[in-house]
Amino acid sequence: MPDLSPPQDAAEAALFAECWDAVLSYADLCTAGAGTAHQLADEAFTSGMRELRAARSAVRGRAPRLPVIPQLLGAVRDTVVGWENAGKGHRLDPDLRLWLNSGAADRYTGPPLGRPVALRGLRDMPEADATLLWLAEVEALPLPTVARRLGLDPLTTAVELEQVRVLFHDRCHRAHRDSPLDAECRSYARLLDAVTRSPGAETPEDLSRHLATCVPCAEAAACLRLHGGTLPAALAGGVIGWGALAYLERRRRAAEVRLGMGAPPAPGTPAADEASRGRVLRGSLLAAAGVLSVVALGVSLMPFGPSDERKMSARDDQKPIAAPDTPHPTPTPTPTSAPSRSAAPATARTEPVSPSPTPTPTRRKSQPPSRKPSATPSRAPAPAPAPARSTPVTCQVSYQLESEWSSGFQANVRFTTDEPLSGWQLTWTFPDGQHIGATWDAVSHQDGAQVIAEAQSYNGEVAEHGTTAFGFVGSLDGGNGAPTGFRLNGEPCANN
Predict the structure, then answer these.
(1) How many CA atoms lie within 13 A of 241 on its CB side?
(2) Which residues fall within 8 angstroms of residue 235, CB to CB, at 6 or more apart?
């Protein structure tokens, strides 16, 4: 598939950074291997953003459209179907393949009246209202964050969200009535609408029995309930289908990790009140985390054997959900038989390694008359060894920061090689905890601070003294210093 062109403006670059994490999270659920998730996410993100650009550049009509993140998650599902049909199903999760081959996925692309009620109800809403509902209910973002992202008034966002929930209820009720229902289901439609509007209304026994045996009405009931906590699962299940509950859990965990990263809200505002309630709920967890941090610090100072190194490699909160399964270049370990530099410094060796019959100047004060005394004092250190030949630099890299905003940035990387290449891999290290996101003209992976960018199928061949470039958007976690340690296929590169 051809690459996706870079973001067209700062707003689209920010959109790339916001949506990439959601796409990668769902792609990781759908694949059998962690590294394959990046390939699926890259292909789905590319096709989804192309469709989004085409829709926005076309003449604006009144055709309903999903919010951006649900559109891109639908692109992941469509790409998964393409992989299964193209004979690449072995790269997908086995349970997902069962779901695909059961025909359940056909509901999301089949006749409009047969599609899930939540999908039709969300599509029938104004895009701004649907986006507010999705970010708050499915992505689990705090309301101050949602308000800031959508440009809403933080003081009225909670009221607007409640109104949007009611609007979603009405759209789903209409979609349910428009579905091809039998006479019994249609007779319960009005009662179902009334029962689900009020939090204190009791479900009649006959309606309860009907919901226990009728899948379409039970699905509609989950979408219509404004209270009780069923709305997030109904939304996610109606839009993406398989893996909806697992996706919800991942997004909630990701939102919890991001809590507290922004500036503190002003006292007395609804944002401050919500943050205060969150602090009360998380107080005991934070206290426990503090104790664990002290214990972890003490443990980290203890000597560990080789078998304990695996216990200190957990970095789930510092890297993307899907870690690459491709091997990463690591420093060559020093052989165990080699002497330690600190134990035997070069300047301390005043005797030759092999025994010699000739006594050293430090053992005798007198020397034979025929021997010319050495001009070097006996206590002087041995001459420093000749410096090892440095590895010749075979490439030059130029890293250029194109734009930057509060939570992310866009950058371009260009390298020139002195030798012809048939496939390339460029690695570097981020100094300030940055994370790479959507990438064009390359396939990217990240492990901790190290990033690996590999050639696409169409730009792996590079001629001698040829130049190749690619770009990406990334997220910030503090500073945004320029990366270091560039290597092309394992060889060091000069950073221009």
Answers:
(1) 27
(2) 118, 122, 133, 134, 137, 138, 223
Q: What is the tens place of the pLDDT at every residue in 260-282?
A: 444 444 445 444 454 444 443 34
For the segment 189-235, what is each residue's pLDDT rounded down to a tens digit?
A: 888 888 887 777 788 888 888 888 888 898 888 888 877 778 899 99
Do 171 and 121 touch, CB atoms closer than 8 A? yes
DSSP 8-state symbol, 92? B
> Which tokens is 492 given?
């060091």
Beta-carbon count within 10 A of 108 CB: 19
Between CA 444 and CA 438 the distance in angstroms is: 8
Which tokens go with 465? 């003294």
The whole-angstrom separation of Cα 473 and Cα 437 is 5
CB 54 within 8 A of CB 1: no
Closest CA to 322 of 115, 14, 45: 45
DSSP-derived 3-state class of residue 379: coil
Beta bridge partners of 472: 411, 439
- What CA–CA distance (Å, rounded) separates 110 from 259? 39
DSSP letter assigned to residue 309 = G
Q: Which amino acid is at 455?
A: A
Tokens coding 139? 């992505």
Q: Under a CB-based contact definition with an 8 Å cutoff, are residues 74 and 109 in contact?
A: no
